[in-house]
Amino acid sequence: MLSPERLFDPDPHQKSIAQELYAGIKDLPIVSPHGHVDPSLFVTADLHFGNPVELLIQPDHYVLRMLYSQGISYEQLLSKKNPREIWRLFAGMFYLYNGTPSGLWLTHEMEAIFGVTEKLTSETADSVYDQIDHELKQDRCRPRALFEHFNIEVLATTDSASDSLEYHQKIRASGWKAKIIPTFRPDNVVNINLPTWRNNITQLSAASGIDIVDFPSFIRVIEQRRSFFKSMGATATDSGVYSPATEFLSPAEAETIFQHALKGKATLADGRRFSAHMLCELARMSTEDGLVMQIHAGIYRNHNPEIFTRFGSDRGFDIPIRCEFTNNLHALLERFGNHPKFNLILFTVDESTYVTELAPLAGAYPSIKLGPPWWFNDSWNGIRRYFDQVMETAGIFNTAGFNDDTRAFLSIPARHDVWRRASSDWLAGLVVRKVIDEQDAGQLAKELAVGLAKRAYHL
User: Which long-range contacts (CB under 8 A, 24 or more apart) does 144-148 make?
Assistant: First the structure.
């Protein structure tokens, strides 16, 4: 099903160069410095995955949102009964994913991991299900075995500020030598407008052993938790924000807003100002502890309140919004943008900012790197648009390489393969047009595949 020439330009000259570049990087180790894979998968060597539905359909919001958009209910899709019936439904509608990155990733997974070589349809649903189900019971398809088979050099997870990192500790204690590291994500204690915020603060206080009674004690706890994450191998933090607005509040203003939040009286305006101030505080902490700061901005999360209420988050209803960076980030960059220990990686799903804001910012500030195309832009076309819009202004070495940002462990090789093919083809285009020579293209291909990410994330 998978053509070895996929994603390469049909022009014979460019395709030949692209194939040569790809051959030089396709087997390089995978560096996955930002993602959401559950570390509990790797605690023991004998753990097996569940059935094909639990593995390939139910955890994947890309898959779910497409089916839901066609009128298939989440009650049907998330049921724990009759997984084969869910698979048959999925197989009969697999044509929906033609031309999408999800379709490409899933096809790659089924063929490369499970040896499926027939097209998934209503007619082949049962035979494909049985083949995948059989393979999942084999030792080679256990999570640890696949981690090693995928040639993953490092895998970063994303973990809440109050997380005990229990599974990371168990992985270490087991003696397994794989490098799986946490990433510090404080969103649920920084967003004071969350309905669960007060409970999140209670959990954070319990995790730290420090009573959080005011803003200074809150800051002490955040610093303490960052130190713990760093001791467990973390090299980065991650902040997912609606807007990248930054603002420095006075100590009195920060305390007033924090006390309002503790009493359940924080307004939406309070929440926006507090988030803006906390981005600055987190940047200040990064200059002190050296953790790389990531900002993922421009998403309206849980846009469908009915689905969120009934089925929770990560069900396909996080929708992109327009995002402004130049003015919003000015307060933070004015203070820390030139600091030698500050490293900031920026992500957006608003492609209109690549040329006008992000590439110029990254091309000037020594502290900024641009993250790869994120979420809805993590596709062959999205990657190509990113290269065309960013590289001329920012330069390749002011970008952070690739990260897969996935919850679906089995999709990691597929996603990195798309990036490596797209980058090889783009570089081949530069060679054909005599912008760079083949020697430079070969070196740049290796940087885009591995080198840039390792440096950007201090790995």
Answer: 144/42, 144/45, 144/47, 144/176, 144/178, 146/113, 146/409, 146/410, 147/42, 147/178, 148/178
Q: Show the tokens assigned to 431.
A: 């060679």
Q: Are 377 and 412 in contact (CB under 8 A)?
A: no
Burial class (CB in 10 A: 0-12, 13-18, 19+), 164: exposed
Q: Model-level pTM?
A: 0.96
Residue type, 316: G
Tokens representing residue 289 in the block? 């502890």
Task: Quote the CA–CA distance of 249 and 278 in Å, as a whole number.
Answer: 9
Domain 48-141: which topology? Answer: uronate isomerase, domain 2, chain A (1.10.2020)
Q: What residues does each domain of the chain span?
A: 48-141
pLDDT in tens, the chain (459 residues): 789 999 999 999 999 999 999 999 999 999 999 999 999 999 999 999 999 999 999 988 899 999 999 999 999 999 989 999 999 999 999 999 999 999 999 999 999 999 999 999 999 999 999 999 999 999 999 999 999 999 999 999 999 999 999 999 999 999 999 999 999 999 999 999 999 999 999 999 999 999 999 999 999 999 999 999 999 999 999 999 999 999 999 999 999 999 999 999 999 999 999 999 999 999 999 999 999 999 999 988 889 998 888 888 888 888 899 999 999 999 999 999 999 999 999 999 999 999 999 999 999 999 999 999 998 899 999 999 999 999 999 999 999 999 999 999 999 999 999 999 999 999 999 999 999 999 999 999 999 999 999 999 999
The length of the chain is: 459
